[in-house]
Design a protein that fits this description.
alpha+beta, single chain, Heat Shock Protein 90, 2 domains, five-stranded mixed sheet
Length: 281
């Protein structure tokens, strides 16, 4: 009799163990599902925030472009029209026309052309890729529209293997340069690229008024945009106030990230996919 009960007991114990394992797995699966759902909820919220940020960026860029058109190009064209009308009235009344007036009209037209060219360059920022990163950056710092002197210090070699990474870095630096020109009240702005401790460091430093209270972060939209771009390429963003004053915005891109891009872009046989090339602006 006992011999018959032993197999049943073993079978019952096996079933209980299997049931316990199943319950543990179900509990673990439920926990993982809840975690995944929470991560999904956060991702949805993050994307909604990014969507709102995109609309805000678009509105801000439209306002900026409208302000530049009003304060720059429109003012020059209005002055040209006024002076041309003055010359026309002199001709109509058979009065003397001064060479200086015609030269002034020519100067104003040239200034208007410069304004239009700078705005066109700003609108073409999306064309920046790996091949055009450095030329575009040199063009950015040398634009005649800037009221504050701006220069580039390139202290290392730089080879991007992904257009998207080059575009994000360029736009991040561009945003930092624009912010410095608008708010820093600086005498000089320096864009620097160098290597340190396994990172490629892209920085924009000004000698202006600095951040309020010397804070290391800012809730401003411009800084949020830069931080988003830095995270998108696996880098980190730091904003600080140097001891000498002013503000420094630094993007730390791991050097190994560029190496992994190079390996990912290498086809079987050792050939490297080249970045897209665009004709110069």
């Amino acid at each position: 009799m006992n011999k018959k009960r032993q197999p049943r007991r073993k079978t019952t114990e096996t079933l209980h163990k299997a049931q316990s394992r199943l319950q543990a797995r179900m509990k673990e699966g439920t926990s993982e599902l809840l975690t995944a759902n929470e991560e999904l909820r956060r991702e949805i919220q993050r994307r909604k925030g990014l969507e709102g940020m995109i609309f805000e960026i678009s509105d801000r860029e439209q306002q900026r472009l409208g302000q530049e058109l009003h304060d720059g190009l429109c003012q020059h064209l209005t002055a040209v029209a006024f002076m041309a009308r003055s010359v026309a009235l002199r001709l109509k009344n058979h009065r003397v026309i001064y060479v200086e007036d015609l030269e002034k009209i020519s100067d104003l037209v040239n200034e208007a052309a410069i304004d239009a060219r700078n705005m066109a360059r700003g609108l073409h920022a999306a064309e920046v890729d790996a091949a055009r990163f450095l030329p575009a950056l040199r063009d950015l710092v040398s634009r005649e529209i800037w009221k504050t002197p701006c220069r580039l210090e390139l202290k290392t070699t730089l080879n991007f293997h992904e257009d998207a990474v080059a575009s994000h870095v360029y736009r991040l630096l561009r945003e930092a340069v624009i912010n410095a020109h608008k708010h820093a009240q600086a005498k000089e702005i320096v864009v620097e690229i160098h290597r340190s401790n396994g990172d490629i460091i892209f920085s924009v430093t000004d000698d202006g008024v600095g951040l309020p209270g010397g804070r290391n972060d800012s809730p401003g939209l411009g800084f949020q945009i830069m931080n988003h771009r830095a995270r998108a390429i696996g880098s980190r963003l730091e904003i600080e106030c140097p001891k000498k004053g002013g503000t420094r915005v630094s993007c730390y891109l791991p050097d190994k990230a560029l190496q992994s891009q190079k390996r990912a872009n290498t086809r079987p046989g050792g050939f490297l996919r080249k970045s897209r090339k665009h004709s110069p602006l």
